[in-house]
Amino acid sequence: MVRNLLSRYRVKGGSHDQHFLIDEDVLDLIAETANLSESDHVLEIGGGIGNLTERLLKKAGKVTVIEYDPYLVDVLNDRFGDRDDFEVILGDAVKVDLPPFNKVVANLPYSISSPITFRLLKHGFDLAVLMYQYEFAKRMVSSSGSKEYGRLSVAIQHYADVDIIVKIPPSSFSPQPEVWSAVIRLEPHESPYLVKDEKFFLKLVEAAFSQRRKKLKNAISRSLPSEEKQFILTHLPESVMNKRAEELSPEDFASLANYILELKKKAVDN
Ligand code: SAM
User: Fold this and answer.
1) How many angstroms separate the CA atoms of 184 and 189, rounded?
2) What residues contact residue 183 under an 8 Å CB cut-off, 6+ apart?
3) Which residues contact ligand 1 via a Cβ below 6 A?
4) CATH code, domain carrying 210
5) What's the 255 CA to ligand 1 centre distance in angstroms?
């Protein structure tokens, strides 16, 4: 049992986002959702006392853990260090070189949710099953028109299919966090729409949501460099510029970004 492990190793948690998952059913569900087989090399971010690691090791061919806390690295080595299919790297998952892997499974440290998710998406993987703070998870899966829909929703959904598997109460953890959590399944996809310049697309989305209650023309005019802003304001139809960012789907943003780039190209050619 996870509570026995916590007392055996005298681990209390609390610092470094250490909220250990003690609900055995949720631990089983996370491992099952990852659909592991001998051919999988799993990356686990933040192994803690190995409560999830032991489940991953039962099914995967190899498990590599990145853990920030040296004491917990010792605990993990004490539990699994003699196995060939296990490796632990001491370090910050946002900064260390990533090992080879094809799936990621983790009860994430919530303070690095955003940087680690985008780092992993840029790196590439087959499937991820990750625990996030519930509010963050809702923003990841939201569609245009909902109040949680924003820059995070557009950026994540551009790279991957994303679903909430289950919502988890604070009582499933020790020590209990103040917030609810959710397990998310992420499967990278080829974007279903064309984006001609990814950097510009993401910049436009960021500018549009920088003031989400404002019409696009106001939000954009406050957050883009003046040359770009001027160009967009003079060339785009009022019908588009009078919309709010939350009314545009990821595909709408892609079309808008492509359209602006096309107009700019024509302006340069003339
Ligand atoms: N896997 C365990 C579980 O499910 O109970 C522990 C999860 S706990 C929410 C987060 C773990 O991530 C802790 O073990 C913590 O020490 C570790 N951690 C915190 N920040 C980290 C970082 N930047 N890089 C890697 N691990 C980190």
Assistant:
1) 16
2) 26, 29, 30, 33, 129, 130, 131, 164, 165, 166, 168
3) 16-21, 45-48, 51-52, 66-69, 72, 92-94, 107, 109, 112
4) 1.10.8
5) 39
Most informative mutation of 18, 57, 110 for ligand 1 (most atoms within 8 A of CB): 18
139, 245: one domain: no
Taking the model in full, what pTM does it have?
A: 0.92
Same domain membership, residue 210 and residue 176: no
| Containing structural domain, residue 35 | 2-188
CA-CA-CA-CA torsion sign (232, 238, 240, 245): positive
pLDDT digits (tens, 9 = 90+) for 177-213: 999 999 999 999 999 899 999 998 998 899 899 888 8
What total number of domains does the chain contain?
Answer: 2
- Residue 193 is assigned to a structural domain of this protein: no
For the record, the structure tokens of 74 come out as 């010792």
Q: Domain boundary residue among 167, 188, 209? A: 188
